[in-house]
Amino acid sequence: MKAAVMGYGTIGSGVVEVLEQNREVIATRVGEEIEITYVLDLRDFEGEPIQKKIVHDYKVIAEDDSVQIVVETMGGVEPAYTFVKAMLLAGKHVATSNKALVAVKGAELLALAKEKNVNFMFEASVGGGIPIIRPLNSCLTADVIEEITGIVNGTTNYMMTKMTTEGLEFADVLKDAQAKGYAEKDPTADIEGYDACRKIAILTSLVCGRQVDYEDIPTQGITGISAVDIKYAKAMGLAIKLLATSKKTFDSYAVMVAPFLLSPSHPLYSVQDVFNAIFVHGNMLGDAMFYGSGAGKLPTASAVVADVVEMAKNVGHNIPVEWQPTKLELADPAQMEYRYFVRAAAERAEVEEVFGKVAYVEAEGVTGEVGFVTDSMSGADYEKKAAALPGVIQMIRVA
Ligand code: HSE
């Protein structure tokens, strides 16, 4: 069976490596070998073995009827969208790792795949190598999914782990993450939470069957987290993690991305370093956790190739995925109730006047401010109270 790869970067080259290294076992599972015929890239890879497969025009792939499966690992919405659409229109199956593309165009590309009786798969777009898309689409279809909460960004989880274990400041940890190749030169998408936001938008779209626009999701990254916050977290025996969370309300989902304080009893507390984990609660299933390598070349390529195998086993058959283009109006996450850890340059009497009884926290060596945890209240109530307390420095929700 002939396949093509669009984008020979980290993940695309990983896909070629996985197909080569596991050639035999994959051939056994599919029933025939999968051969990469073309690799689309702007570069020539002069002198490298891949050079003979390189093409620079996506139409070469689209117009070759012998190619049945195409992998898109270019990233970004354009030109990936134009190329993927052309492949589907040409009757080819497409697997992608591109969360930006899936979050924005997922519903449309799934509909097109259905129309052309092929498949559009995107297991690697969330959680890297961790199976989560296929479990949601096929194993958990008996349930109403009431909650999905995940650590879905490896870079920021690595940074939070490092800040906790080594007591370092954000900027130093970021430099370390960049030196290790976890964080990009421009780390904005990871540290501002945009990457996690697109991933929770995809997961929520899949469980509600409608379009969740990532722009509607309140998103806060980890750039505001300091070594002092970590000191307080340690004093409370809690860990700060960037969570992407989606909870069912009466007729919608309340979705947000933000740093949270987790207690050791929380299922995501022990997820360290670049690992990802996704907690799912179904109304029949109860709780389930998906944990593993959420980023990186081979784990992500493993998920892409698993899609390739699934598509190769389903030539001539569209596997239905419930994700309609109709937009879901998200519920306001400010209605969700949490306890709040707050730091303020204020007196205890001022704090109590606004918040009533709170639990104070002392952090080693921190002076000139007060740290406390409020009772449980809605985000809207918290905002009202916080506006009445001068000198609020920080607020982190306690999950
Ligand atoms: N930048 C992403 C992360 C890559 O750190 O998790 C995987 O989507």
Helix content: 25-40%
Average pLDDT across residues? 97
Percent range for β-strand residues: 15-25%
How many strands, which pairing sense, and closed or not: the largest β-sheet? 10 strands, mixed
Q: Which ligands, by name, code or SMILES, are bound? A: L-homoserine
Q: State the end-to-end distance.
A: 48 Å
Radius of gyration: 23 Å
Order of helices and strands: EHHEEHEHEHEHEHHHHHEEEEHEHEEEHE
Poorly predicted ranges (pLDDT <50, ≥5 residues)? none
Briefly say what this structure is:
With 399 residues, this protein is an alpha/beta fold. The termini are far apart. Strands 7, 8, 9, 10, 11, 12, 13, 14, 15 and 16 form a ten-stranded mixed beta sheet that branches. A six-stranded parallel beta sheet has the order 3-2-1-4-5-6, with helices on both faces.
Secondary structure layout plus pairing:
Elements: E1 2-6, H1 10-21, H2 23-30, E2 35-40, E3 54-55, H3 58-62, E4 67-72, H4 80-89, E5 93-96, H5 99-115, E6 120-121, H6 133-139, E7 145-151, H7 154-166, H8 170-179, H9 188-191, H10 194-208, H11 227-236, E8 239-248, E9 253-262, E10 275-282, E11 286-293, H12 297-312, E12 337-344, H13 348-355, E13 359-361, E14 370-373, E15 377-378, H14 379-388, E16 392-398
Parallel strand pairs: 1-2, 1-4, 2-3, 4-5, 5-6, 9-16
Antiparallel strand pairs: 7-8, 7-10, 8-9, 10-11, 12-14, 12-15, 12-16, 13-14
Helix pairs in contact: 1-12, 4-5, 5-10, 7-8
Bound molecules: L-homoserine.
